[in-house]
Amino acid sequence: MIIIKFILLFGPQAVGKMTVGHELTKITELKLFHNHMSIELFHPFFGFSSETWRLSEIVRREFFESFSNSNQYGLIFTYVWGFDLQADWEFVKQTCDIFESKGAEIYLVELEANIEERITRNATAFRLD
Fold first, then answer.
1. What is the phi-psi region of residue 25: left when phi exceeds 0, alpha when psi lies from -120 to 50, beta otherwise?
2. Which of 5, 53, 66, 114 has a C-alpha 20 to 30 A away from that of 34?
3. CA–CA distance from 19 to each of 63, 78, 82, 96, 99 (Å)?
4. Could you tell me the residue range of the domain that residue 67 belongs to?
5. Could you give the CA distance from residue 5 to residue 119 in angstroms, rounded to a whole number?
6. C-beta separation of 78 from 21 below 8 A
């Protein structure tokens, strides 16, 4: 029996979540679903509006449900978690609950970097793509 893994990489903007996620996919069988993937679906139509966030949440929830029911090894998801926002806490709990209900191993990994490093990273080609 395969025990699926769910890794939530979180931290502030430009800290390296997507970079770490990409590197993990190279050395494991984990798949990367980064935060931008669902946002970029709707941003061209609605900008950074409440409708973009609403639709993005629906897509994420449905995707997490489908992935947790698959025979995949595991998933990495990147997220900017506002610790002062109750909605973010609820999103993380609901997401982890989806995977835990299927017996998944859950890993919460916080990345950090000083502001100077984040400003430098914000100008790299990978970030700008």
1. alpha
2. 114
3. 22, 10, 20, 22, 23
4. 5-128
5. 32
6. yes
Number of domains in the chain: 1
How confident is the model over 7-35, as pLDDT tens digits? Answer: 999 998 888 899 999 999 999 999 999 98
Q: What is the pLDDT of residues 1-12, one digit of tens each?
A: 678 999 999 998
- Give the residues of the chain that fall short of pLDDT 70: 1, 124-129
In order of 36, 65, 121, the CA distances from 127 in angstroms are 11, 28, 7
Contact 69, 36 (CB under 8 A): no
Cβ count near 66 (within 10 Å): 11
Terminal Cα-to-Cα distance of the chain (whole angstroms): 38
Q: Taking each helix axis from N to C terminus, what angle separates 86-100 and 50-68, rounded to the nearest 10 degrees?
A: 20
Rounded to the nearest 10 degrees, the angle between the axes of helix 50-68 and helix 35-46 is 140
Within 8 A by CB and 6+ apart from 34, the residues are: 17, 18, 21, 76, 77, 78
